[in-house]
Amino acid sequence: MGNINGHETLVTAPWLRMRLAEPETARRICLIDATPGKDEPCLPHARPLDVGALLQGGPPTAAFFQAAVRAIGATSFDQVVIYDRGNPLAASVLWRLFQAFGHCDACILDGGYTAWRSASGDIARGYASQEAGTWRARKGRLDRELLADIERLQQAARSG
C-alpha cells in the first residue's frame, strides 16, 4: 500500500484537501478530531476521538486505547491524520499515543481546524459513521514527557 506522506509529523491543510479529494487515497485516511464539539461542523470524513474523555481515568492502557480507536473504525493500515480545535496539546498527545502503541503512520494537521477553514476547506455537518475497525495496539511505554503532557491536558480540563 505504501505510506501516503512518508511518515511526516505535520501535514498542511492544502495537502489534506488534495488527499481527501482522491477517493482511493481518502479511503486510506483516518481523519480524527481530537477535540470534537457537540453539534459543531467538522472536516469531511472526520471521526471523533475526544482526548479529554480518553484520558479521564488517567493514561490509557494499550487495550483501552485499542478499543477506542477501533470504535471509530480505524485499521492498522490507515494513515492517521489528527486535528484539534485550538488546543494543539490535545492533537500532540493523541499523536504520541499512536506512536507509543505502535502506529507510526500518524500525523497532525498543522494549525488544526482553524488552518483547514483558512484554506477554504469544506466542512461537514457531522462526523462520518464507521463500522468497528481492526486497529491493533502493540504494548507500549508512555514516556515521561508524554505523561507530563497528559497531566497538563487533564489540569487544563479541570480548570477550564
Q: Average pLDDT across residues?
A: 91
* Secondary-structure arrangement, i.e. CATH architecture: 3-Layer(aba) Sandwich
Radius of gyration: 15 Å
- Residue fraction in strands: 5-15%
**Count of helical stretches:** 7
Q: Which strand order does the major sheet show? A: 1-5-4-2-3
User: Would you give the CATH topology?
Assistant: Oxidized Rhodanese, domain 1
Largest sheet: 5 strands, parallel
Please identify the structural class as seen in this structure: alpha/beta
Proportion of residues in helical segments: 25-40%
CATH superfamily: Rhodanese-like domain
| Overall CATH class | Alpha Beta
Coarse morphology: globular
N-to-C order of helices and strands: EHHEEHHEHEHH
The end-to-end distance, rounded to whole angstroms, is 42 Å
- Spans of at least 5 consecutive residues with low confidence: none
**Structurally, how many domains make up the residues?**
1
DSSP strand count: 5
Describe this structure in words.
With 160 residues, the protein is of the alpha/beta class. It has a single domain (10-159), classed as Oxidized Rhodanese, domain 1. The protein has helices spanning 13-20, 23-26, 51-54, 62-71, 88-100, 112-118, 144-159, and strands at 10-11, 29-33, 46-48, 79-83, 106-109. Strands 1-5-4-2-3 form a five-stranded parallel β-sheet. Helix 5 links the parallel strand 4 and strand 5 (106-109). The radius of gyration is 15 Å and the shape is globular.
